[in-house]
Every structure is written in structure tokens, then in C-alpha cells.
Amino acid sequence: MALNIPLEQSSNIPLAIVGETFLVLRKDVECEITVSGMKKLKATGSVYLTTERLAFVSSNPTVKDGFAFYSFGLPLNTLSKESFNQPIFGCNNLSGTVSPYPGSALPSSIDFKLFFKNGCGRFLSLFFLALRGARNPSA
Length: 139
Known about the structure:
Helix content is about 10%, strand content about 50%. It contains 1 helix and 8 strands. The model has no long low-confidence stretch (mean pLDDT about 85). Strands 1-5-4-3-2-8-7-6 form an 8-stranded antiparallel sheet. By secondary structure, it is mainly beta. The longest helix has 15 residues, at about 120-135.
């Protein structure tokens, strides 16, 4: 995982990684990230699903304890414990754990939750297809 990934300046769209294809965009998503040793980070914005990662971009970047949080990237190939949750009360959400990118400043695995305020039907089916492709690239 990487915090504050590079964004295209005029549109705030994540810059593509070589070989990456953007699959779907879902707006009005609330995100929570829990990193060991840090306070929980929360923001609302848009999530981009690509063939390589989930990329979240906050619509209102926040600063907490001097740390700015405006985006993150979750590589699909290091994602584990993924779960789609449908609570009786509240928004459907996707949760899981991601290992940090090698050499990143993040100390350990990161737990995340994405709350879909306006549904997630098409996003969810494409997410599980992309996840399967990232875990088994030769298939």
C-alpha cells in the first residue's frame, strides 16, 4: 500500500502504472484505513479499480496530527482477508488487509474498509475478477 499516490494535477485522477488499465470508478465512497501505530484515517471520495490496484482519492483531503491524507493505492496482489459486508444498518462495504509496498515508510499491514454510499454492484463483480487476475496473472 502507498499513501498519497501521485495524481494527475488538473483532474486528481491517479497516474497509471505501466501496464495498468482503469476498469471502473465509484464516487461517494467513505474510506477508513488503520495502520499500526497511527490514528485511523478517514475520508470520503472516489475509488478507482484498475487491473493492478484500488486507488482512493479524497474529495476533501484531511490533515491529522500534521499528516496530510489525500489518496492511497492498494495493490491487488498483496491484498488478503477481503470481505464484502452487508450490514443490516449502514452501507455495504468492502474490507481487507494489504501489505505495504517494499521500501515504503508504512510499518506493517494495513486494514481498510470502503463504504459504498450509492451501491457497488458493478464495482464488486469487477473487483473480484481483477483480484483473481492479479493473484493468477498467467490464467
